[in-house]
Amino acid sequence: MLSKTVKGIGDHYSARRVITKWQIARIAFYISAFTVFVLWDYKIAFTVLNFSVCGFYGAAVGFRLLSAFIAFFNKPEIQITQEQLAAINDNSLPLYTVLIPLYKEANITDKIMGMIDTLDYPKDRLDVKILLEEEDKETQEACASVDLPSCCEVIVIPDGQPRTKPRACNYGLECARGKYLVIFDAEDRPDPDQLKKAVIAFSIVPDTTACLQAKLNYYNPDQNFLTRFFTLEYTAWFDLFLPGLHRMGLPIPLGGTSNHFHTDILKQLGGWDAFNVAEDCDLGIRLTNAGHNTKVIDSTTWEEANSRLWNWVRQRSRWVKGYIQTHLVHTRSPLKTFTNLGAKNFAGFFLSVGGLAGVLLLNPLYWLILTLWGCLQWKLIYFDYTDETEQYYTVWSQLSWVFFVLAILLFASNFALILLNILACQRRRLWRLLPYAILAPLYWGLISLAAWKGALQLIRKPHYWEKTEHGLDSTHNSSSR
């Protein structure tokens, strides 16, 4: 009988607390200092603020583009040849644990069996844990009604809070018997040889490598406009950005599936943070913080791209909320994190986690400010100037060069985004999606709206896990968290 709790991570690295008193005090200090600055000279204050934020924004976008360029011209991910795969003796392969967390997914138990069958790995060396929630009777009954292979074990997670995927995975980790461990979602279609590739990769990478991240992509890119944009985004992230981080030796924010771990190291770290809704991103940073690293392996797991707008918004808002949680957790003691990670890794973490969330939240604000500035400047040209409007116009004129710099930054950033998506088209030969690469700024505007939803939800329901409905592609019927 499983207990209601499992040994997890310490409070310092848990998102159970959204923000600490010290973080609140630091924020209050910054606001107070800026207020004093504004009272002294508001034009200088807003100029300094704008250039500080622009510097952060530009650094985050430039960092992502740099990482993508490095991966595009080097292809640094670990590549396993067919000759290496053919040389494997199946009898020498280690036991491999596969965690498959399910929640309200009774209709896809047969697909899970199909996924397990397609894995090119000896079934007697698989330790598959199907993780079900206690209150999800329908999925439990569905699993009981099928003839599960002998390598599969159903684990029912005791009811408790938070009811999240990482909490379920921690129970699976507690029971894991394999030397290595991987997570697959219910709708995943990993390359059949992915586990063998991971075993070979672990044998050739340094001992400090605790995790291998496989690439993720979508099998339904042409379903509608949203899936086309989503496919480009995933290709840019997993085929370019993460391999670039790999090449630079920087912390890698993990994807939610197809991460392959040394089981013992994962247990030593306490598994996943059950209170972080982007537990994968957080774990990638904690691995680096503990002296380990993550590499990217050249193997793909195919998923279903979200094809309905509100369903996509819920999923994306959860991801951004989790990135904000991760940033807050790892900046509770910034000096300690800086010391543990080192300057290079700290900068990589800051720009890839906080930087991503920050850019998404700043986008609509900056575009709104720039639009207002342009409209007001245009109107003021035709005003009959009174003393009041003359003073008003003078203020805007004095700040015009600030807004001009902002305009250049936004247009340059959007050009970088378009270029990133064009590189993604080339990497996967997705030339039919090239028109959508050019329209990528529209998609990023949509992501920013979802980001604000996640940020606001962090205040009201920080640990709420918004379930994502899948099985919306008529040719692939499945569902997942």
Q: How would you sum up this structure, described in words?
A:
- With 481 residues, the protein is of the alpha/beta class.
- It has one domain: Spore Coat Polysaccharide Biosynthesis Protein SpsA, Chain A.
- The chain is 57% helix and 11% strand.
- It contains 16 helices and eight strands.
- The protein has helices at residues 21-40, 42-74, 82-86, 109-118, 137-144, 165-175, 194-204, 225-248, 263-268, 279-289, 309-330, 334-381, 387-398, 400-427, 434-438, 440-460; strands spanning 96-101, 126-133, 152-157, 180-183, 189-190, 209-218, 259-262, 293-303.
- An eight-stranded mixed β-sheet has the order 3-2-1-4-7-6-8-5, with helices on both faces.
- Strand 1, helix 4 and strand 2 form a beta-alpha-beta unit.
- Helix 2 (42-74) crosses helix 8, helix 10 crosses helix 12 (334-381) and helix 11 crosses helix 16 (440-460).
* CATH level-4 homologous superfamily: Spore Coat Polysaccharide Biosynthesis Protein SpsA, Chain A
Order of helices and strands: HHHEHEHEHEEHEHEHHEHHHHHH
Instruction: Specify the CATH class.
Output: Alpha Beta
Helix fraction bin:
55-70%
Taking strands numbered 1, 2, ... along the chain, how are they ordered across the largest sheet?
3-2-1-4-7-6-8-5
Terminal Cα span: 25 Å
Q: What structural keywords apply?
A:
disordered C terminus; Spore Coat Polysaccharide Biosynthesis Protein SpsA, Chain A; eight-stranded mixed sheet; 481 residues
List the helices and strands and how they pair.
Layout: H1 21-40, H2 42-74, H3 82-86, E1 96-101, H4 109-118, E2 126-133, H5 137-144, E3 152-157, H6 165-175, E4 180-183, E5 189-190, H7 194-204, E6 209-218, H8 225-248, E7 259-262, H9 263-268, H10 279-289, E8 293-303, H11 309-330, H12 334-381, H13 387-398, H14 400-427, H15 434-438, H16 440-460
Parallel strand pairs: 1-2, 1-4, 2-3, 6-8
Antiparallel strand pairs: 4-7, 5-8, 6-7
Helix pairs in contact: 1-2, 2-8, 2-12, 2-14, 8-14, 10-11, 10-12, 11-12, 11-16, 12-14, 12-16
